Amino acid sequence: MTALIALISCKERVTGCFEPMENMVEAKLDFECSGVYLITDNAVLKVCSADDFGSFTENEVVYVTYSEVSDCPIKDTLMSCHSYIPYDAIVSLASIKAKSPKATLERDCTGTYIDVDGLDYQVCNSDKLKDVAEGTQLEVDFKELEECTNPDNEYICYMAREFHGIAMVKSFKEID
Fold first, then answer.
1. 146 by DSSP, 3-state: which?
2. How far apart are CA 42 and CA 46, in angstroms?
3. Which pLDDT does position 69 carry in this prediction?
4. What is the pLDDT of residue 27?
5. Of 54, 140, 56, which is closest to residue 100 (Cα–Cα)?
């Protein structure tokens, strides 16, 4: 039996635009010497995977869908771990993305942008980020829009900027 944990964004291959589907579960990541765990409202799930979790941090929140596996072919290699976390099920990981992706705030005369994994999104509600300095690293939760009905660049700008999409920032947190 192959198990799967997958994350689905609100548009195909859009980094960070998460609108969870009905079958998705929000989970918090927990890293222990005995393994990686997903903590949900209803269960503790041990992740059976050799994936690199280097881009994630302790207690980071993700959206997941999963199915259980009965056996884990990857064995923990740390024999000196004296910690044991009781878990409800073992799951195998196919892909994982953060609920709130990391972004860099950018500004020019064409508008305000968030750079998420090398893709620029023009921010439609830039007033929400007005007190944030350019170049600041953010964890940002946003929704991609088809168009911006209230753009922030009301003056003439003799510059053009290519961008991936238009974003409505729902919430953000500055990263130290």
1. coil
2. 13
3. 85
4. 86
5. 140
CA 125/CA 109 separation, integer angstroms? 15
Go through 134-165 and write b for each residue having 16 or more CB atoms within 10 A of its CB, e for each that does not.
Answer: eeeebbbbbbbbeebeeebeeeeeeeeeebbb
* Per-10-residue mean pLDDT, the chain, length 176: 32 48 77 86 84 72 77 61 83 68 89 90 92 92 82 72 90 84
Find out whether 154 and 52 touch, Cβ atoms under 8 Å. no
For residue 2, the one-letter residue type is T
**Beta strands 89-92 and 44-48, pairing class:** parallel
Q: Which of helix, strand or coil describes residue 46?
A: strand
Tokens of 30: 């927990």
How far is Cα 143 from Cα 39, in angstroms, rounded to an integer? 25
First to last CA, the chain: 42
- Rounded to 5°, the CA angle 161-163-166 comes to 120
For the whole model, what pTM was predicted?
0.54
Nearest to 5 by CA among 60, 59, 63, 52: 63
Q: How far apart are CA 112 and CA 132, in angstroms?
A: 11
